[in-house]
C-alpha cells in the first residue's frame, strides 16, 4: 500500500458531513453579508507570495511548496489565499465590475509545517476579503462576520482578540522603541527572534519559544505608539464592536504571521482546541494591493481554518449522513427487472432509494437494508408481480402490507415528508 503524504489526510464519510455543514453555513452567511464567491488557481508564481505574504515571514522562509515546472517557471502551491485574491482583483479590475468588491473563497492551502493535531501540510481555509473601503466600519463588518460564523456553527468557548499594528507612519517609531527596550536581551532570545530583530522586529511577538516569553512580555505595545489616524481608526473599530455587542479583548501580542498587516488585526480562539487554538485570523492590509502592482486600494479580510472549525464543532450536529428513504428488494430475475424500474421511479421523484445488486437471498437483502438504516423496504417477488403490487415492510415495527405498484413512489414520498416534519418538531 502507498500511504498518503505526511501532513495530508483523507476526509472520510462520517466526517465529510461535518465539513459540508461548515462550508454550507459559511457560504450562506457570506452571501447574506453580500460577499461573492471567487475561485483562483491553487498554483501561482512564487513571487506573488514572496512579495505579498512577505520575505521575512515563516511562510515564505520555511513553509512554501515551490518547484520549477517543465517550462522553467517558479511555481508555488498557495500557502494562503489573500495574495491570490489581490492578484485577481487587480488583474480583472474587479472594482469596475463590482459595486463593492467583497469576495470569498474556500479551498486547500499548503504549508510545509510540522504536522500535529490541527496543523497539516495540506489544510483548508474559508477566506473573505473586502477591497477599497478605508472606513473603520468595514473592519467592524468583517469581524462581525467572523464572529457570526463561529456562532452559527455552534462553536463554544470562543474568544475574540484584536489589536492595531499601526501603519508605515507610526511603525518605525514603534520598531525603534522595541529594539531599544530589547537592548542586550536580544542575545538571550532564540535564533529566529535574533534574526527577526534584524529583519522585522514586530515578528518577535509571534515567538512561541517558552524561554523567550518573559523577555517578550516586557516589550512595549503597538497600541501605545499609534499615530493619530491609526488611533482614531482603532477606537472606531472598538466602538463598532460594542454596538454589535461582540465581546473582545485587546491582545498586545497579536501582530499575526504575515508582513502585510496594517492597523486592525484580529483572531478568534477556541478554548478547547489545545495548542492549535486559532480558528481564524485576519486584518487590514492597506499597502498590499499597491505593493502587488495594483492601484492604491486598501483591503481587509480573514481566513478560517476549516480543519480547526470542524474540530471545534459541537459533537451533536443538526446534520446526519444521508439515509435511504427506501430500499428495494427483489426475488427472481423478472422481479429484478421490475425492481430496477421502481428504483428509477423513486430516484426520478427525488427520493434516496437503494438496491443490493448482488443480493441473492431476501435475508441478505433485508440485512443490507437494515445496515443502511432504510425505514422502508419495498419487496418485489413473483406474487407481487402477478398482482401488480409491492410489499412494503416498515423496519421500525416489522409490519408489512401490500400496496399497488403505482402508489409505491407516492407512499415513500409521504413517509419521508412525515419523518422530516417529525424531525423539525
Ligand atoms: P498558526 O499560528 O496556528 O500557525 P497562522 O497565523 O499561521 O496560524 P493564518 O495564516 O492566519 O494562520 O491562517 C488562518 C487560519 O488558518 C488559522 O487561524 C488556522 O485556523 C488555519 N491554519 C493555518 N495554518 C494551518 C495548518 N498548517 N493546518 C491547519 N490549519 C491551519
Ligand atoms: Mg502558522
In short:
With 425 residues, the chain is α+β, with helices and mostly antiparallel strands. It is built from 16 helices and 16 strands. The protein has an 8-stranded mixed beta sheet, with helices on both faces. The chain has a 5-stranded mixed beta sheet with strand order 13-12-14-15-16, with helices on both faces. A 3-stranded antiparallel beta sheet has the order 2-4-3.
Strands, helices and their partners?
Blueprint: H1 16-32, E1 36-37, E2 43-45, H2 46-51, H3 58-63, E3 65-68, E4 74-77, H4 82-91, H5 94-97, E5 102-110, E6 122-131, H6 136-152, E7 158-164, H7 171-182, H8 191-199, H9 213-217, H10 228-244, E8 249-250, E9 262-270, E10 278-284, H11 288-291, E11 299-305, H12 306-312, E12 326-330, H13 333-348, E13 353-355, H14 362-372, E14 376-380, H15 382-387, E15 389-394, E16 399-404, H16 408-424
